[in-house]
Amino acid sequence: MKKASVLLLCLALLWPCAVQAAQLNKIAAVVNGQVITMFDLQKNALPELARARLSPDNPKQAKAVDAVLRKVLDVMVMDILIVQEAKRLKATVAPSEVDDEITRIMKGNNLTREQFEAQLARQKSSVAELRSGIEKNLLRQKVMSMEVGRRVVVTPDEIKAYYEAHKDTFYDRTGLHMGILVYSPKANAASVAAQIKSGSLGFAEAVSKYSVAPNRDKGGDMGPVEWERLNPEWEARLSKMKPGDVTEIFDLQGHKAQVHLFRPGGGAARMLTFEEAKPQIDARLRQPKAMERFEDYSAQLRRKAVIDIRL
Asked: How far is residue 27's CA from residue 29's CA, in Å, rounded to a whole number?
């Protein structure tokens, strides 16, 4: 009888673990035969949940957590479809390409290899996980270039018309740096931003006092802006700025932030001729067309795929 009681007690203690394991092993979705487990989904959703300050264990936040999980699952489904398309198109990413991207990230943040890996460890990540994420991004870029970019057309007349309407916004962008101020949650971002705008507080000084970014000791300097590597959101933000401009406050991964566009050493902005401005204009006009084409392409991939969502 005593042994039976001990056995029942052990089963009772193990039951919550068994239920949790079953939940994690539960299938969240199947995409053309490829499985996404709840474990993988929750792992991918952790950063989003953390930024939104949501806990999957809080019943009161269940609806908000579910919305985040579905959003992340949608991205994971698209990632699988892109990888499958890459195989069809025979698009690949070489390890050296991933190495180059990691080197660029370290250089942009002024980090040594040891500092970089230590920062990843603090974020509960690893070089292997980062490499996997970079490889997916590069693969996505290649597929998009092959299937989207080549089908987007910007005409000479469109470029000429845009230049005539916006010629006072085109200046020499070579050598420009981007500074970033990521506000501490304790800082009064609105007050500091007002001081920066009035000129009573320098951007670099504000960074040293109120930023939580790792480059605060360098005045927030992220290094030279690599315009061709900017994602659409940052390209749209920076292309509207002139040297010396500081953005209004915006949200950045759960923090308030501002960006400063500047040329080390100062100097007046040199305006571009039409011929010089053409590549910038082409990129600016191409972006919204590419995004529209990407939405069509994504919908097309989904229509052709067999997707079983089980959330």
From this structure: 6
Structure token pair of residue 247: 């953005």
> How many distinct structural domains can be found in the chain?
2
Query: At 35, which helix (H) or strand (E)?
Result: strand 34-37
- C-alpha to C-alpha distances, 308 to 66, 301, 305, nearest whole angstrom: 17, 14, 10
Report the DSSP beta bridge partners of residue 171.
271
Predicted structure pTM score? 0.61
Q: For residue 238, give its domain range.
A: 171-270
pLDDT in tens, 96-150: 999 998 888 887 666 788 888 888 888 778 888 889 889 988 998 888 888 888 8
pLDDT band with cut points at 50, 70 and 90 for residue 24: low
Domain contains 18: no
Rounded to an integer, the average pLDDT of 38-64 is 88
Q: Is the dihedral of CA 103, 261, 285, 298 positive or negative?
A: positive
Phi, psi of 215 (to 5 degrees): -100, 25
In-domain check, residue 109: yes
Residues with Cβ < 8 Å from 51, sequence gap 6 or more?
253, 254
**296 in a structural domain:** no
pLDDT at 8: 44
Residue 4 structure tokens:
């039976």
DSSP H/E element including 7: helix 2-25
Return the number of other C-beta atoms located less than 10 Å from residue 180's C-beta: 20
